Amino acid sequence: MISYSKVNIRIEVLRKGVAEGTFFKHLAPITVNHLIRSMPLEGRANKFEDSFIYFISGVVIGLEKARTSFKRGEIAFLPLNGSICFFLKDTSVLKAMNPLGRINSGIEILEKVGPGDVISIRIIE
After folding, report:
1. Three-state SS for 16?
2. Which CATH number does the domain housing residue 66 bear?
3. Is residue 88 part of a domain?
């Protein structure tokens, strides 16, 4: 459902399963609106140590309400390369990221992601 303040999303890992999450517009309104207009988004998964997984979205946008500390289950956008990141544990990163929202269910699916798996994000209508 799309509302003024939040957007529910479906995060699918091809042949592994589905997770659900929410983007909150107040966290980074310009970034979230740009991502919504660009959906569906899809890319090949990469893993940064055991801290987070990410895929390059192709979206270009700058820093907005950026921070360097994230908790397990949070979703963020890395402007440096246009990546959408899913945090698997509490982490501090060196490059600031725009916070986007949270994973509501299915984080265990994301924990099973391997390099090269295809991740897609769609809006839940």
Report:
1. coil
2. 2.40.100.20
3. yes
Distance of CA 96 to the CA centre of its chain: 14
Three-state SS letters, 56-124 = ECCCCCCCCCCEEEECCCEEEEECCCCEEEEECCCEEEEEEEEEEEEEEECHHHHHCCCCCCEEEEEEC
C-alpha 54/C-alpha 72 separation (Å) is: 14
Task: Name the residue range of residue 11's domain.
Answer: 6-123
- pLDDT tens-digit map of 45-64: 999 888 999 999 989 999 99
Place of tokens 């402007």: 79
Does residue 1 sit within a domain? Answer: no
| Domain presence at residue 68 | yes
Q: Which backbone phi and psi does 111 adopt, to 5 degrees?
A: -70, -20
Other CB atoms within a 10 A radius of the CB of residue 57 amount to: 22
Q: How many domains in the chain?
A: 1
This model's pTM is above 0.90? yes
